[in-house]
């Protein structure tokens, strides 16, 4: 009988995950419009969970305290709309935003409001999603690594000097998370007012969250970017062509996508300069 040669069983080993690759994949999914995972039970993500109730002294002299309830979304939007309508300049609008108490983000750890930077009379309006840690500290949008990359891209296309840069929300979301649709809706009257005051010749939307909020769409940024659309003010008096592109934070993780953004920027530059773009073949 022939002997049977025995082979050792291969040892199972677990590979150490590539953290950078994992972060890049998650960023790709986010910018492509993936904002949730399947769970065991359905979750209604349209429901806003108010921050903890703050406590204020009662008018009575007894010293009894009573809870202050957060305003509902409709009241907050109405308050924002009324405050924004009173602003006749970008400076007035910045002050109105800083004084506004209706956005739930203001009570979630943000240091200060972050409204804008750039030329308040510029031909180009740029809208991102919301401030991060660096922006929260400095009080200006797009000043971190992603903002520095955005500036380099705009400067290369001779667009930086004519850009007015802002976001869909004006307080840093906790943990730099994506702002919720409700948070964006509460801040929208201020963004609409900035659009009316600026009357830009073109608008660049940066990232999926900005594109979805301004254009009122559900498509991911990979399907939206590079397409010209229109943004019209609520009263219909002001309109401008709009193009969306990938967020520079995504490019920091996926530099091979810079070519897509550069194409969008060149289309934007041609639109601003009045050049006629040939339709794609």
What would your notes on this structure say?
- With 281 residues, the protein is an alpha/beta fold.
- It has a single domain (69-273), classed as 3-Layer(aba) Sandwich (Uracil-DNA Glycosylase, subunit E).
- Helix content is 38%, strand content 13%.
- The protein is built from ten helices and eight strands.
- It has helices spanning 19-31, 73-85, 90-99, 133-138, 145-156, 181-198, 208-215, 221-224, 248-253, 258-273; strands spanning 54-57, 65-68, 117-118, 124-128, 163-167, 202-206, 228-232, 239-245.
- The strands form two sheets. Strands 3-5-4-6-8-7 form a six-stranded mixed β-sheet, sandwiched between helices. Strands 1-2 form a two-stranded antiparallel sheet.
- A hairpin with a 6-residue loop joins strand 7 (228-232) and strand 8.
- The longest helix is centred in the C-terminal third of the chain and has 18 residues, at 181-198.
- The radius of gyration is 23 Å and the shape is globular.
- Residues 45-70 and 277-281 have low confidence and may be disordered.
- It catalyses: Hydrolyzes single-stranded DNA or mismatched double-stranded DNA and polynucleotides, releasing free uracil.
- Pfam families: UDG.
- Belongs to the uracil-DNA glycosylase (UDG) superfamily. Type 4 (UDGa) family.
- Residues 115-266 form the Uracil-DNA glycosylase-like domain.
- Keywords: 4Fe-4S, DNA damage, DNA repair, Glycosidase, Hydrolase, Iron, Iron-sulfur, Metal-binding.
